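Archive entry. Fields below.
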Amino acid sequence: NAGVTQTPKFQVLKTGQSMTLQCAQDMNHNSMYWYRQDPGMGLRLIYYSASEGTTDKGEVPNGYNVSRLNKREFSLRLESAAPSQTSVYFCASRMTAGNSPLHFGNGTRLTVT
Amino acid sequence: QKEVEQNSGPLSVPEGAIASLNCTYSDRGSQSFFWYRQYSGKSPELIMFIYSNGDKEDGRFTAQLNKASQYVSLLIRDSQPSDSATYLCAVNNRTNAGKSTFGDGTTLTVKP
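PREDICTED_STRUCTURE:
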């Protein structure tokens, strides 16, 4: 079982460049999430999609956009990358927007120079 | 005040000892509580979840929840070097559409 698959694993961008992080899950989960993790700061929610067709802002949405392409896929776009967006990005999914646990992808390590 | 706070680490225990990890939360509407383990350079993985007051045991792990005190803990018995990792506490409540709020994590080192 693949679970949650993120691409790419690593990326280096120059300031002002754009890119899209891809995420797909094969567990038939309804809810999907994008988190970023900075050293010593735990996981902070960027955007989430409680169900197909809906997206909402999380704690740190500025500089990002998302698309819930279908039930399986949830992408995160950086329109104009900034050094402050250097981080590790995790996509996660769960069965329902509620009490079920999160399943995480392997992460994308992004560096913006 | 942060929504979810964990005891600052790092925490170091000898092999075979009990490791105690603590977490407090500010939202009284919180309903479900999760402990994730994260090895260095890896993604978080679920260790335990608990919804009701009291203790929940799974092998060497025990989660404890006290909603009145807004406190959740994770005990690891017979700690092993392979338990060395960062442990993340996460909290959900019914009004936030399933968004999990994470603490900053506590790094545990188990010394042989």
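CURATOR_NOTE: Chain B is about 0% helix and 55% strand.
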